[in-house]
Predict the structure.
Amino acid sequence: MPVVKGGVWTNIEDEVLKAAVSKYGLNQWARVSSLLARKTPKQCKARWQEWLDPSIKKVEFTKEEDEKLLHLAKLMPTQWRTIAPLVGRTANQCIERYQKLLDEAEQREAGELGLTGGDDSAAPTADDVRRLRPGEVDPDPETKPARPDTIDLDEDEKEMLSEARARLANTQGKKAKRKARERQQEESRRLAALQKRRELKTAGINIKVVTRKKGQMDYNADIPFEKKAAPGFYDTNEELTLNERQRANFDPRKQQLAQAKRKQDEEEEAGRKRRKADKDAPSASYREALKAGQMQRVREAEQSSKRRALNLPAPQVGEGELEEIVKMGMIGERANTAAEGENDATRGLVNSYSTLNTSAPIRTPKAPAHEDHIANEIKNIRALTQTQSSLLGGENTPLHEGAGSTGFESAAPRMQNIVTPNPLATPLRQGANGVGATPLRPGQTPLRTPRDSFALNAQGNDMVLRHRLKQGLASLPKPKQQSWELELPEEEQEVATNKSGLPEDAAVRDQRERELREAQELIERKRRTQVMQRELPRPVSVNLEVLLRAAEDIEDSAEKAIAREAAILVAHDAAKYPLSTATQRSQVPRLDQIEDIALAEARRQILLEAKDKLKADAVEAAWAKSNTNSLLLGLGCYDDTEQEEVEAMKEAFDEIQDIMIDSAEKGAKLEKKLNLHLGGYKQRAETLRKKMGDSATELEKATNALNSFKILAISEEAAARNRLAALREEVGFISRREREAQELYRRNREELNALVAEGTNGSATHGALTFDLVARCSTTRARASVLTLPHGPVNLPMFMPVATQASLKGITPEQLEQTGCRLCLNNTYHLGLKPGQDVLDAVGGAHKLQGWKHNILTDSGGFQMVSLLELATITEEGVRFLSPHDRTPMLLTPEHSMSLQNSIGSDIMMQLDDVIVTTSPDRQRMREAMERSVRWLDRCLAAHRNPATQNLFCIIQGGLDLELRRACAEAMLARDTPGIAIGGLSGGEAKDDYCRVVAACTALLPELKPRYVMGIGYPEDLVVSVALGADMFDCVWPTRTARFGNAVTKSGMLKLRNNEYANDFGVIEEGCGCMCCRPREAGREAEGLGVTRAFIHHNVAKETVAAHLLTMHNVWYQLNLMSDIREAIIADRFPAFIKEFYGRLYPDRSEYPKWAVDALSGVGVDLLQD
């Protein structure tokens, strides 16, 4: 049954989510949700953004926030994600507050109208309606408080909590190790740079601190978020100049000496005063009397200060002036008293000018009642939600607008700020717009002069009004030279309505108006002249006055009227419908409006009259007459003679000749002017033309020189190639002779070791281990052997899968046994923590714990000094560290490590060694770790309880320093352990350094003992390491890369997560003998699964079965690779096997790793040659 994720959040889930966010950030929600078995990434993100984010405010809404919420809801309805950041709350908080405000308003209105009944008959409230009923699911559990944890957690919650603890505390991954190394390197670089700057500063040399990245802040040198103090009233430039001068003259060396001397002087002065005080110390009674006298003097001083006389400045108005002011006021009061009497004559001559007649209030007016914007907006919202559909028509919903609403001016609501009137800023005179209006300009009195009781300023007021009117007229723009034509406005037509009384549709109205407009244009076009209607040619320029004068010369009155009307029509068409080539624009003459009926009747009469008079012969004669070659057109009674035509030609020739002479003179003038203007350009063009020629010549010369140099370079390159080939041949000869000598030395040394070793048949027995040497490679240092252990023999060379906690991730012990594995690795550190030594002793060791009947090798836990460096502290006693499970302090000593491995019952035990990263620049720490490893080996040998059934291997340390490695190897060989391991590698060092260390160490080790290189698992590394003389290897890489969806094959690694394998239905690797790749065939002795790449691709993301299958394949590949290497060594064809291996892995030889080529060339294998 699928698990439905979601539901109420608990306190445990909240804490796990916060811890995961602090580790993975706010973008990797899929990784965060993997820690919570019952929550999806989307739910985790919503929980953080709606509840757990520290920036979320969970206090009550303020009045300002309510106003802003309602205002934004009015501007952007239902856009809560946009409104939330503007209000400063989450979207769900905004929705809940919005609904609560509406519910309160509705409840308040119901209470005012008396719609609420008794307890039994009362309608359910909004809270009752929204409250979840039993069995209902909360749609938004991410916005609710966490549920308290139960006392007894179920198994899923326990498993989730333990996995979350382990993953959040995990610092053993590659990324965590890399980050730790980067932090350590950054800290060491910072301390080194700081020490360097301090030393240089002490020496008097100041260096500038350069920020590593441009645009970023150096928090060690700068002040983040610094707010400099604003400049004060007084100028401090002199002080700044003085400070800069003092800093320039400052010498740190002199300052240091002065501080040392001053410190000595201060100490001597303090000692001298202390001795004098001790010598002259008065008695206690004397000190108390002295203190009392001081207090008495203080009290007397306070009393004397209280009785001091008041010191005030001299008055600006004297007594006499005050008396005169009082007398003047009394005189005015008496005049006012007389004016208030019953005598009308006195009242007309005297008036009161002591006070201003204004309606301005003496006291501050009472502020108007403040309207509740929140209540008005809620009423508007409720009115809009209760209105009927707009399709039914009717009036709009009445809303509270104006000052009583938040308005639509901006995103912020409109504010009502009541300001107390300031009598000093606002004049007390009443203006035109209200109480105490401020004048428009200084000194300007609004409307009238105040206190003008006798109308003394009436004439002046009229003059002011006239002056204002003149100023207003003068400010108008000047009139333009234009002619204006006034037209009466057209009467608007009433909107047509249909029979139903509804307004006419807009499309129908537009069509009807368009048809009326087209009909009107057609009528106007028919009223035009026949010339315009038929688009006949028209004169370009028309002079109405000339045409009218010509018409006046006609004697016949009818012809004269026709000519006058024709002239007006021609001028009207030319002015109203001008041609595109016409330049003259004249005023359109006014035509008499003639009705259409009269025009039609006139056309008909003309046609009837011309029907009888217009003959074809007359038309041909008129046409011929109008197209004669006559020079004087229009005079039909005159024909030119031949002599007159010749004279006309002469005159035309003379005229044309004059025109040509004028044109020539103008051309000469223009040519002179152009020469004057363009003379400089011509000279400049000539100069540039000359320079271009010179540049072309120089370019040709440079091209010839370039070609010559190219030929010379080709010749020199050929000669250099010949010389380089000769030098390479000499170097190759020297290298070959040196390699032969090294190989001769190696063989002699191996023969010596074989003679010295026990036995004469190539085998040695040491404790619980027997090593039988089967074959050696005649070219490289590779060898094939058999290692006999308490739980059976093991063929060397071999690869050991890593079962860290007595279990190989993804497969069972039976499946591991089917792959051919006879020796696997367990970790002492992790088994000592969980299940613990007590459980191991009770169960009888790791063989019974994991159901494994073959051999086991246990790592001592020294590698955890590097992987858990933040939790560990290394001392001579051992390693003090904090448990990664519960952070309890623990101590791992060599004796404790041996005790744990004895309890595990492993066939091969490793000594506890001091491991540091190989890339560490601290040589002193490297030497200390090497020497400590030797001392800890002695303690391990002394604490080893079962040497007859368990074999203890030593570990050679020393980093990348060959001298330290050689010294450590000599010390370890002196202890004569059954086997020897090379440790401290695979920690980020370069491949060249790794090969150099392995080659140097294997050359120092005895022939009849197994050689174990720790932490090596890549196929290329295994092949090269075997060629360098190593026998045993281990690594977690095959199983770890399987969990990421990667399959190891002979042609390289396949990333089956990629989409290219989604439709690939072939097996993981053709020809592979593992259970996953073997096809399903009935009757086979070992039937396989036939797993396809597509199956792995579709299951690798979410299902563990893909990791399980790939782990089986990768482990089988590693073990089969070592088996093929062993067979090649026995057949003495290992060099050919190496070339075949790299040829399958890298089709192009140029892609061969340089480190592999160099390392193999050192043992007689040249990968670049066939």
